[in-house]
């Protein structure tokens, strides 16, 4: 193993949930060293967080703009910037980071509008940087296994796919800071549950099936009185490969924690996976007993094995899956430095763009009473 | 316990799945004695089946018309006729049975058209007979518990309900006799999966929530090439009480056996139930640990206890739930004889009518691309 | 199907749990007609119960002795007597019933002492009657499947077997009538949990492995103060075929309902089954993904299919398994009448004797601090 | 957060399972920096592993003795040494490390004999160093929750505890390098499964109940022909607080991955936990519905919350639990530097000593046919 990548965060102060997740994920395999940060939009909190994380005094920045400027000017600048701010800042920070020459890891949903998304995608292409979007659920080994099986034809022709994402933590009006910005359209973007978790579901579906959403009919609902964004969505899908789909997500289902589920149905069989029991992939074939494929267990392909760190029965979970995104991103950076080819397994800016287009189409469909809306090809 | 009810079956020869279920269910509590039958539309098979079941020679009939006529003429006629033929015969046999003065147990879906359904409902009202439709899943004790809790306000105001019914046995084109008639519109009616299992889901939803479907938007799909009816359906619902709903059903999900699930979401909590683990009802409340309510276990109400035969941990299942329909129907007949009031817990002709109206509305909506269709009030 | 068997019960008044179970089980397949009973040792309750069950007035008996005497004298005597009294009466009633020429179904544990058991076994042999002991758990289809697989060598050489039976309903001192007689040695016999549920576990183990217990080392415990019998047992086993075993049972594990589990381990694989999810048999083989075999599903052998009534996913449970014992007992009686051979799948007097010998050996071992005790060969 | 602890490993070359686990666990929270290593007993592999891990050239050592000597001589020596060699080296390396003044993290089982264990314990006491034994399962948040509830009296008086540890990976004779040293008494110590996984079970039991094993009766078995150590154990326990216990472990149960389970039974309730679903703790109380406590969910105490990194439903697993051991060890070192009190939640040398005493007693009991053996007080 060579030198660790020099790494900065924008957002992710010590009391932010997702910032800590990124730090654990990046730390897990020892390929990143956090060296700089603009960890909060409030300078005092940015300073306090930087010190708490042990950053060098001179690399604790009061703003992301300052971070980009000062780091560019250093002889040993950071190489990767992770953006873990509320959504409304993603576009500006990501665009500036890309244009400043940094590789970027950005949280989802990528940006607020498809126009922003395509602008950013073009900037990435122009700059030639690497760009990851942390659709972390595609990092689970058994999700990788599902993709390998589906693309390998194990299920025959795909007929339908169902992806569900159930949460309950926004069932009440008041749920603290994490809830506040996620239900404020100025910060979260025009979608609520659909943007926050529906985009995860959409990306997972595309990752496993290899088929994008061609068109959709959506019904978005706001159950909690006074909420300015949707907290529940139900989307019928037609995929480019001809399969049909159903995507549902909700944040008002009391008792559901982080209940993301995927089921893919083909002419020859079915695969089923649940995020809360992530080491298992259930495999059904016509007229055969059900099989349980387990991470680390017998019968797995290369993709799952490469994404796994422990033997069977020693469970891996959320941070390890998230870490797989960071690990592969580091590998891509190092491969590029070495002039070697590397096929990313991490979600790229393309996934990010598709997610934003999906949200826009669903909002449009729902406004029109569930009419079918095509997505850009 | 008084004398057993004298009972006849139309349909349900020895090789028919559902006929045997009715016999087990009716036998379980010793309140019915099978005394007559027109067990097949083929006289030879009707005779063979009747003998195999030990019916008296003179009460094995070659046709249902003969059965009704001869039984009426006897001094000791049967009191209850169960109709377990393919769907296309339900209307004629039920109407004639009602008009002949028999109490009727009829399988679902009730009939092919809403017009038939309402005609039959009127005949029942005019005749003053009792009429049960074997929506058997509402017979499960923990479904009864769910209804009692929901109607008692335990979940607060209902926000949404999701009912799913997944099967895989029709994923291939050729699946034998049981499949053949269910995919022939002349025999099964205009709907496939939606009629066969979607109506169960619709009735279950109404039973537990106490709210009927007010309007719907449906997408029906036929995945198996050459099939003349839908084998998959996805229906958005608005209920009369204001809740939203999602009903999905499919018979092409390989590996799913009889995976009927219900989840009811309110402002205060959630109830979740699965038919394949029927003795458990999962209860979630805001900011409380999840509870598992079990049949026979602590914390149950009167409805579940009345529908239960065994202590906790001694599982009850499909036949026992089905038997609860038959047991309560017998109790109603006896109560009426005794001049006593009886509130049925079994599904009545009203449930049957609603199911047919639901199917008609869904077919109409789907033909029109998923437009919203109102149901009769 | 021919005429139903004329059937009597000793014990099993309307408020007794196990009597109702026998009635449901016998009713399920329509092969028995309850015609006589001595349903309680208290004449008033015997009469009330008999009337409630609709027995003919002249066949409601005040004592089992009267029942045997009067039925023998009738032209149409009952053919089968089921004994569902508290344990202390099993020996007298069973012996007299056998000697009076009736076929007998007797609850478990068979009798109080091995001497009684062997006396009764000899009487059965001398009389030539049929005798079933309702070790009902061996009636589950997936238990039959396990036996077929184990005896067919699918697991290779057996190494060990673990059978566990966990209940919690006797965790407190006061648990009502069902508890009272089960913890009174005069009524239940010298063992408590070991006799009540440990014998089920022992029989299940022998049924599935085809190997009897050769020797054992037991630790019995009485956790509840003042209780006169064990409420918890832990027994190391050596089986005749060379496998080792562990049998544990308890009635003081709060929250456990009727948690009977079996796992059989061989050189090639493992089978695992749980009574509370009885339609599933988990099958593990070396270096193969886990398989779920389900009742009614693909990959089952003849034994499971013969014991099943419904398609996959339509759960069967306790009463159906119990009914399989009754159904096969009826088939044996009818086969014998017809002069045909019949290999019983129901547990016979032999199983009953072994259970009593097991209890005696375990009591002896535990009294001696867990010393190894051989069982009769 | 202050400076990271300077850290070395003895053992744990790049192809060793457990070394990588320690590195992931220590990396997770950013409190250790791996700076030196004697990663293999083969110098070439030690060098290759050190380079692969990015260690400075001058701190890649060919032997543990060299590591201790050279690090002591540096101005910036490592502060913590983790010992992840095969078991036979634990004693020498740990003793020398302690005597050289390093804090030590040592894998389990601690050493081969109770005499060694007590010698080492005395050395730790004399040196005043900190010493952790990586009984990692006690690091799971819901295990911490169970301990807090049990010690807080939620279960009433403890009656019994059952801990089971089932694996199947040693069911065959040949299982590669990981198996080889574990079944060679010269390397693994006198016990096989009992040492490798039974000690985990014993520590978990003591951790959760707060009661040590007072005496035991053991039956160890070697199922695989030619194996020199046990691969299966069954141990009856009496705990110092009066509770009874059962500990079973096996490595020949085909299909079992890492199936560690704990159930604690008291006069008021039961707690149940499974390592393969580690975020759930099942809580049963007399006459109350079962509760599911989940990591991050409602109703948890301080101990579980302190050991958790993610919200409910975002699963944590093996590495996170292991990381809790490392994190608390770092906290203890820093607290000591700061002159602050710190109550360790990580397992200490005392746990290690008890584990070795447990193994010795069990071996002795089993050799004598299961006789009861007292453990040192």
Automatic annotation (TrEMBL), chains A, B, C, D:
Location of the Gfo/Idh/MocA-like oxidoreductase N-terminal domain: 5-135
Domain GFO/IDH/MocA-like oxidoreductase residues, every copy: 143-271
Pfam families recorded: GFO_IDH_MocA, GFO_IDH_MocA_C3
Gene3D superfamilies in the cross-refs: Dihydrodipicolinate Reductase, domain 2, NAD(P)-binding Rossmann-like Domain
Membrane spanning stretches: none
InterPro entries attached to this UniProt entry: Gfo/Idh/MocA-like_OxRdtase_N, Gfo/Idh/MocA_oxidoreduct, GFO_IDH_MocA-like_dom, NAD(P)-bd_dom_sf
PANTHER family, per the entry: CONSERVED EXPRESSED OXIDOREDUCTASE (EUROFUNG) (PTHR43708), OXIDOREDUCTASE (PTHR43708:SF3)
Protein name: Gfo/Idh/MocA family protein
């Amino acid at each position: 193993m060579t030198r660790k990548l020099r790494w900065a965060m924008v957002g992710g102060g010590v009391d932010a949930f997702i910032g800590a997740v990124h730090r654990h994920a990046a730390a897990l395999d020892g390929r990143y060293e956090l060296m700089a940060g603009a960890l909060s939009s409030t300078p005092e909190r940015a300073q306090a967080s930087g010190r708490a994380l042990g950053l060098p005094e001179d690399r604790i920045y009061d703003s992301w703009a300052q971070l980009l400027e000062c780091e560019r000017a250093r002889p040993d600048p950071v190489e990767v910037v992770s953006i873990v701010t509320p959504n409304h800042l993603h576009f500006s920070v990501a665009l500036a980071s890309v244009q400043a020459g940094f590789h970027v890891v950005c949280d989802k949903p990528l940006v607020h509008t498809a126009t922003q998304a395509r602008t950013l995608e073009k900037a990435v292409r122009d700059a030639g940087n690497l760009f990851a979007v942390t659709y972390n659920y595609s990092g689970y080994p058994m999700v990788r296994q599902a993709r390998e099986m589906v693309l390998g034809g194990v299920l025959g022709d795909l007929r339908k796919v169902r992806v569900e994402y159930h949460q309950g933590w926004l069932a009440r009006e008041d749920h603290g800071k994490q809830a506040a910005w996620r239900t404020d359209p100025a910060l979260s973007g025009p979608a609520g549950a659909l943007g926050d978790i529906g985009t995860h579901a959409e990306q997972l579906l595309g990752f496993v099936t290899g088929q994008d959403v061609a068109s959709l009919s959506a019904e978005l609902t706001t159950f909690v009185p006074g909420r300015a964004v949707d907290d529940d969505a139900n989307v019928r899908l037609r995929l480019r490969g001809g399969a049909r789909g159903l995507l549902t997500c909700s944040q008002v289902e009391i008792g559901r924690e982080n209940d993301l589920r995927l089921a893919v149905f083909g002419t020859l069989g079915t695969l089923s996976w649940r995020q809360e029991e992530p080491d298992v992939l259930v495999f059904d074939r016509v007229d055969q007993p059900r099989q349980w494929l387990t991470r680390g267990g017998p019968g797995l392909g290369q993709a799952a094995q490469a994404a796994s760190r422990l033997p069977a029965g020693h469970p891996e979970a959320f941070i390890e899956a998230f870490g797989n995104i960071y690990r592969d991103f580091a590998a891509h950076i190092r491969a590029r430095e070495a002039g070697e080819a590397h096929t990313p397994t991490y979600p790229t800016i393309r996934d990010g763009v598709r997610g934003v287009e999906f949200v826009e189409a669903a909002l449009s469909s729902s406004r029109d009473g569930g009419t079918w809306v095509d997505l850009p090809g």
